[in-house]
Design goal:
The protein is an alpha+beta fold. The protein contains three helices and six strands, in the order αββαββββα.
């Protein structure tokens, strides 16, 4: 019985430690870099990420609308860049475990680019694509 209690206690401590690591680990600023990532208009699903490019009539207004929508999203905060710089980065955390996803929005020529990707793991269960498509729909893009 004592072994069972100790085993359960160790498992609980390991789960708590894993959760704390995911929630508290710093995110490498290189994850906010967008150089060389611009694509022509369209949708680009990848394992663990999703990117979309749109050509609105006013890219600055479109980025501004996306910024407003993204910052109003649950568990999302801006972590780098600005509208004025033409590039902004955000981190959205999952509700239960707090897994972070990084989203970058930037203007490249006449396109607005948006790319979301996971930080931990290799598969995001499509959450980045769903989130980004929802933001684009809400912004009318």
């Amino acid at each position: 019985m004592k072994v069972l209690i100790w085993s359960v206690a160790i498992v609980v401590v390991l789960i708590a430690a894993g959760d704390a690591y995911v929630r508290l680990a710093s995110i490498d600023p290189a994850r906010y870099a967008v150089g060389g990532l611009a694509k022509p208009p369209g949708d680009y699903p990848e394992t663990g990420s999703f990117q979309a490019a749109r050509t609105p009539s006013d890219p600055v207004a479109a980025m501004s609308a996306l910024d407003r929508i993204i910052r109003a999203s649950a568990r999302t905060r801006q972590v780098a860049g600005s509208l004025e710089a033409g590039h902004a980065s955000y981190v959205t955390r999952s509700a239960f475990w707090g897994f972070p996803d990084v989203t970058n929005v930037w203007i490249s020529g006449d396109t607005v680019q948006i790319r979301g990707h996971l930080v931990f793991g290799s598969f995001d269960l499509g959450v980045n694509a769903k989130r980004i498509k929802g933001w684009l729909d809400e912004a009318g893009l």
